[in-house]
Amino acid sequence: KDVEKEREPHVYLSKEEVKEKIQSYNSSVTDKLKMTLNANGIYTGFIKVQMELCRPITVQSSQSQGRCAHSNNETAFYLPDGCVNTLHISSTNTVREVIEALLKKFLVADNPAKFALYKRCHKEDQVYTCKLSDREHPLYLRLVAGPRTEMLSFVLREHETGEVMWEAFSIPELQNFLRILDKEENEQLQSLKKRYAAYRDKLEEALGGVWKPG
Q1: Residue by residue, what is the 3-state secondary structure of 164-204?
Q2: Is 5 a member of any domain?
Q3: Coil, helix or strand for 37?
Q4: Which of 115, 164, 198, 205 is most deeply buried (CB count within 10 A of its CB)?
Q5: Domain with 55 in it: what CATH number?
Q6: What are the annotated GO cellular component locations (predicted)?
Q7: Is 69 in contact with 179 (CB distance < 8 Å)?
C-alpha cells in the first residue's frame, strides 16, 4: 500500500554534473531509451508513465474498445489497467506539459486540470508516492534516479475525489459517466442475483436430501 512522502527539494546541477550523470545514466540503460545532451545545456530523453485512472476518460473519437457510452463524436471509456505510455521530452518540460502531452497522445478531451502526475519510489521494502507540482521537471527526476523504474516510476492519476472540481466537467461528460455507472450497477446487480440464485438451488438441493424419506 502506498504511503505519502514529502516532496524532495530540487538540487541544481552544473552543466558538467549533468553531462556526467547522463553518461552514467546511458551506461545503465537496457531498453535503448538513452538521454541526449544538447550544446545549449538542455537534455532530452524518455519517461514511462503508468496510467492508473479510476474514472472514464472522454476521447474525441467514435471508435473505442471496452465499456463505453457515446455522445455525438465523443466517447467516454475506461483505460485498461496497467496501461503504460512512453514520452520523449526535454529537461525543460514541466509536469503540466507532460500531462497535456499524455492526454493529447490519447486524444483525451478532458481538462488536464483533472489529472495529477505522481512519482513512485521504492525504498526499504516500502512504496512511497508523492504528487508532483505542476512546475517540477520529470526528466530531471528520471536522470537523478537513474533508468531503473523500480527505483522511480511515474503514474498518472485523477485528483483525489475531494480535490476534483466537478464543475470542470462538461454536461456530456457527466451524462456519459452516469450511463456507464448505470450499466455497471445493472451488471453487478445481475451478477449478484445469479450468485444468490445458485446458493438457493444448492440449499434447496441439500434440504431435499435431508428430508428425503429413507
Answers
A1: CCHHHCCHHHHHHHHHHHHHHHHHHHHHHHHHHHHHHHHHH
A2: no
A3: strand
A4: 115
A5: 3.10.20.90
A6: cytoplasm; microtubule
A7: yes
Q: Quote the CA–CA distance of 34 and 44 in Å, as a whole number.
A: 9
Read off the DSSP letter of residue 124. Answer: T
Asked whether residue 142 falls in the same domain as residue 185, the answer is no
How would you classify residue 107: left for phi > 0, otherwise alpha for psi between -120 and 50, otherwise beta?
left
The tens digit of pLDDT for each residue in 150-196 reads 889 999 988 765 555 566 666 776 777 677 777 778 888 888 888 88
Residue 7: inside a domain = no
Domains in the chain, number? 2
Q: What digits encode the pLDDT tens for the residues 94-138?
A: 999 999 998 888 788 788 888 899 998 877 777 888 889 888 999
- Which residue segment(s) compose the domain that 190 sits in? 168-209
Is 144 within a domain?
yes
Strand, coil or helix: what is 61? coil
